[in-house]
Amino acid sequence: MSKKKDNKRVADIRNPKAARDYELGERFEAGIALTGTEVKALRNGRGNIADAFVRIDSDMIPTLYHAHISEYDFGNTHNHNPYRPRKILLHAKEIRRLAEETKVGGKTIVPLKIYFAHGLAKLLIAVGKGKKLYDKRADIKKRDDERTIRRALGRRR
């Protein structure tokens, strides 16, 4: 007999501010230490990482701060705290590399996306350097110019 496929689509939780506010560098896929009700809430797409950031503590433990994972609707009195710090699971080599990158001035670790891979919650993080206002304006102008070119080519056909 063939295996039945689960058609349940799990929503990715994305950080819309990341690409706009940071020049993103190297990306890492990390695991997250979550409680049961947090996993259930994320599977329902009930999370927000727009204001979140990752910091490596003094004992070399990367931690996700200010990520909001809503309480599970069908939970009980043992529901989780929506804003609690969550431990990030990475290899020691990757942690050392991230720590070295963030010691250099102006760089931070930005969460980009929370998703599920093979049943496990994963966090996509990147090392980012904050953009200045003029950089953001240049990006907007570049996008507008590309859109204008596409429209002009579309009319030609």
Enumerate how many helices there are, as a single number: 4
Helix share of residues? 25-40%
- For the termini, the CA-CA separation is 51 Å
Global mean pLDDT: 87
Largest sheet: 7 strands, antiparallel
Please state the structural category. Answer: alpha+beta
What percent strand? 25-35%
Which strands sit side by side, in order, in the main sheet? 1-8-9-2-7-5-4
Radius of gyration: 19 Å
Which regions are unreliable across 5 or more consecutive residues at pLDDT < 50?
A: none
- Pattern of helices and strands: EHEHEEEEEHEEH
Strands, count: 9
- Overall morphology: globular
Concise structural overview:
With 157 residues, the protein is α+β, with helices and mostly antiparallel strands. It has helices spanning 18-21, 36-43, 92-103, 133-156, and strands at residues 13-14, 22-32, 47-48, 53-56, 62-65, 68-69, 86-89, 107-117, 120-130. The mean pLDDT is 87.
